[in-house]
Amino acid sequence: MGLFDFFRRPPPIRDVAAFAEFIDGNAAFLVQKGIYEYARARAGHYSKVLLAEEGFLKAVEQARWQAYPLGLAMVGEMAEGLLRPSAGDDRRALVDTIGAVVLDVFDSYPLPSVPGGRVAWQDRRVELARRLNLIGAHARKPVKDIPEPYVQAYFDLMPIYERLRAPDFQAIRNYLRVGLINIHDVLSDRLDVPAVLADLLKQRLE
């Protein structure tokens, strides 16, 4: 990387490959950042000790993988909302194609170490597919409202004892809302809507 590369704007997103990469990276970032920051905040002065504990690191690893499909669902719905106004009569095709793209992202990873193993991981895929399919059944949501169906499931995955988590539900809800709004703003700035929409619909026909 050159000296001034840091200051360059990220390239526009003009095809399905770049679109999928954005969804993948930002879904992972959204859920992982929340888990780590919450754990650090809860541990306070002991955060360095906690984050060095093998048992805790294993719990974090499991939590972030279990939360990853939730991140994919949220970022996928947000991305569909950006493209929907330009889809016209192809709205259902758009929902189906974005769903297929998101599921391909999910399937690109080997089976992670999660409680319940392969069966539980496949159950999460089924639930992700169901959530993605439902995008087409309702009006486009404000970005801040997209996380709402996922907040409880995400909150329950936090690697902190349940009795210590109780007062923090609203903070986690606000984190997801603000985080997804920030991701939306970045995607809005980078997304070449006509190019990506055409590439998505083209892939559906192939």
User: Globular, elongated, flat, extended or rod-shaped: what is the shape?
Assistant: globular
Protein structure class = mainly alpha
Q: How many independent structural domains?
A: 1
Low-confidence stretches: none
Helix content: 55-70%
DSSP strand count: 0
Residue fraction in strands: under 5%
Sheet with the most strands, sense and barrel status: none
- Rg (C-alpha, Å): 18 Å
Distance between the termini: 37 Å
Task: Report what the structure shows.
There is one protein chain. The chain has 206 residues and is mainly α. It has one domain (12-205). Helices cover 69% and strands 0% of the residues. The radius of gyration is 18 Å and the shape is globular. The model has no long low-confidence stretch (mean pLDDT 87).
Give a quick summary of the entry.
The protein is mostly helical. The chain contains 9 helices and no strands.
